[in-house]
Amino acid sequence: MKIANYSTIAGGHSRIGIVTGDTLIDAGFQGSMAELIAQWPSQKDRLQALSASGKGLPLSSVRLHAPIERPGKIWAIGLNYADHIEESKMETPSQQVWFTKAQSSINGPYDPILIAKGGDFVDYEVELVAVIGKRGKHIRASDARDYVFGYCVGNDVTERRWQHAGPQWSLGKSFDTHAPIGPWITTADEVADPHALGISCSVNGETRQNSNTRNLVFDLWQQIKHLSGAMTLEPGDLIFTGTPGGVGAAMDPRQFLQAGDVVRCDIDQLGFIEGTMEREV
């Protein structure tokens, strides 16, 4: 299933819906996406029946929001594709390199992305995002698949000057609107292998990143094992799994995003997200 967070064009509170083709069917669930994920075993059959009914709204008539608007945790791994490591002029890490993104950086799949005041060095990073489905700690890699609810497309938007102003990257990764995700969550049962997905990013129609998740240095199961060794993972937590080569900061000359640029991120089977860059007022 494809589970979305939406509101009607007329406005109102966001609700959860099921996307089937060009139709969105309201899920009839009074709660957040994280709450739905936590209750999935008792909700799945009902929602599958709703999905089969085909009765809903045209997808074009609703506004899609970030599938999870306030995730409990957002973790992102750095230097996790060989070509990105090479263009960054760094060594392949022997241990996983992690940073966090602030909850307030979450952005809708088609909402504007801000170039902040004093933050002109903005870059794109398309990433596969995994959504945790149940609580777990000290999860074995062989069991990690069972803890994933689903997947979505993400853009780990980064302000490079702030990122490299010190040894910790999180500030440069946490500007408002700098974590667009969506367009919905595709449940894990619909993705046979998350390590065999084409992944790409374009700016104004020009392809900048083009790779496949098979090229991850540390695969998702290793990532879940590592993170859960330190903390309890919970329903709705997000894991940004790394970005491939082709970022603007590695181009010659460097190419940072400008107001009016349109950034599109695509992943096979999951759809695409697209945002227009705007200057913060």
Secondary structure: elements and pairs:
Layout: E1 2-8, E2 11-20, E3 23-26, H1 33-38, H2 40-53, E4 57-58, E5 62-65, E6 74-78, H3 82-87, E7 97-100, E8 106-107, E9 113-115, E10 122-123, E11 126-132, E12 148-155, E13 158-159, H4 160-163, E14 179-187, E15 198-203, E16 206-212, H5 220-228, E17 238-240, E18 262-267, E19 271-279
Parallel strand pairs: 6-17, 8-14, 9-19
Antiparallel strand pairs: 1-2, 1-5, 1-14, 2-3, 3-4, 6-7, 10-13, 11-12, 11-17, 12-14, 15-16, 15-18, 18-19
The CATH class of the largest domain = Alpha Beta
Write down the CATH topology of the largest domain.
Fumarylacetoacetate hydrolase, domain 2
Question: Termini separation (Å)?
Answer: 38 Å
Total helix count?
5
What would you call the structural class? mainly beta
- The topology string of helices and strands comes to EEEHHEEEHEEEEEEEHEEEHEEE
CATH architecture of the largest domain: Alpha-Beta Complex
**Shape, principal axes of CA atoms:** globular
Q: Major beta sheet, specifics? A: 12 strands, mixed
Average pLDDT taken over every residue: 96
User: How many DSSP E strands?
Assistant: 19
Radius of gyration: 18 Å
CATH level-four homologous superfamily name of the largest domain: Fumarylacetoacetase-like, C-terminal domain
Low-confidence stretches: none
